[in-house]
Amino acid sequence: MTTAIHAAPREWTRLHPVSPFLGAWSVFGAIGAYWFFQNAPEWLGGGGEEFGGGWHPAIITLALLGLLIAALVVAGGYVSWRMTTFRITDDSVELRKGVLYRQSKQARLDRLQAVDVVQPLLARVFGFAAVKVEVAGGEGSTVALEYLRLADADALRNEILALAAGVKAVRKGDAAAVATGASAPPPSLRGVILGEPQGVPAVAAAAERDVLVVPLGRLLGSIALSGAFLWLAAIPLIAVVVVLVVSSDVEHMLLAVIGGSLASVIPVLFGVVGFTWSRLAAGFGFVAGISADGVRLRHGMLETRRQTVPPGRVQAVELRQPLLWRRRDWWRISVNVAGYQADEANVSTLLPVGTRADALAALWLVLPDLGDPDPEGTISLAMSGTGADGGFTASPRSARWFDPMQWRHRGVRATDTALLIRRGLLVRELVVVPHERIQSMGLAQGPLQRAADVATVVVHSTPGPVSPVAQHLAVADAFALIEQQAVRARESRRRQTPEQWLATVVPALDDVLAGDDVTVAPASGGRDE
């Protein structure tokens, strides 16, 4: 057993010794907060009396109890660390943990969907990170290695991605030992704890090209133009208008309404603050790029996350434009990636907010070949067209009786490489599903749809924020779409390979980035930060 992880280990290896304490910081924080509010002076917000001379028995008891709990946490953390080990092989990442109940997890590299390097706030302060290996397998399939030094986490991610691409890594130290017949000295625990160099990473980081950056001002503007802010601003205005219209005793009525409005607005305010913070924290410092390993995403304010999605792992893409973003022509792009769950919106965002040109560049990151002679024109018509614009099969006029607002904006079109689904009047949405990522398709028809001779086609994708559903198509069009998509999906799976991804994404991006409306990130110099 060894604790050296500067080169990805082929034997069972423990995580960094501080891992339990990085994960249990909330326990110590809760103990400290409880003690403060029970014993601090009232002028500091506590519930106790002013400190006088001497120690009260209650304070001594609480202090001893806190020390006992801290000692138990430390002892439990040490035992948990001793019982948690991991290793990587040429075809999997394995993790074993648990004291009373042992758990063993394996992430097969041939099912790899993404590799993330995550730094929560406390781990970021002390230079540690977690490596999360996402594989296709549903909820609970993620293998999380918490925590490693940041350099070790980067080296481990690089080797996992290289192994998934079919590269067999060879350590330089191993090659030298074979040549000289000598063996390298084992690394010391002190050296690992203090971060002293123990070896050279077996696989260097792939060269990265930054493509897009989201300016902070645009991110704040997109949050301010969200529906949550609009509703929050409307509530007090509506209350004042009602008072002025229906009441003659304006002063007393205003006081009553303001008091009632505050009581009703406070829960809404908490929701708006939570929504705002999640969008701001997740989109802060957002940079998207490409490398030979796949799409690279870097973002986060307190918790930073560096995601790497290998080529061909994105199952579906959604371009979304709320009504208030239409004047600036901003778009948000979300993706379905196997392994990411539906509630993980922060890790399923390909672009928090961007111009139309930014949205096209982000789309080409994951689907460089749309299979259309005029891809930009087709996507533009899909974003804002109606009816049969752009060669779409639109909903028939019979759908207007139960979908009067949106039926003109619904449609579906298949290119050589992807299925496009357009929908939405107030909130425009365009869903793009690569043919080879379609798992299956279904047809649904309610009683009103049967009366209007229309049906809904459901494209079954992995769990995520994107729902590929084409509603209210003519029944004949729906059946034809399902039959044709089965053939397209089979043919696309046969000819698409990951090696084709980088060769096609670079020319497609060069064409888009040549425009003036793309928010291009500064050159990274090929470094993986």
From TrEMBL:
Keyword Transmembrane helix tagged: yes
Transmembrane segments: 21-37, 57-79, 228-247, 253-277
Start and end residues of each YdbS-like PH domain: 81-160, 290-341, 407-483
Alphabetized UniProt keyword annotations: Membrane, Transmembrane, Transmembrane helix
Database matches in Pfam families: bPH_2
Annotated PANTHER family: UPF0699 TRANSMEMBRANE PROTEIN YDBS, UPF0699 TRANSMEMBRANE PROTEIN YDBT
Protein name, as recorded: PH domain-containing protein
Organism: Demequina capsici
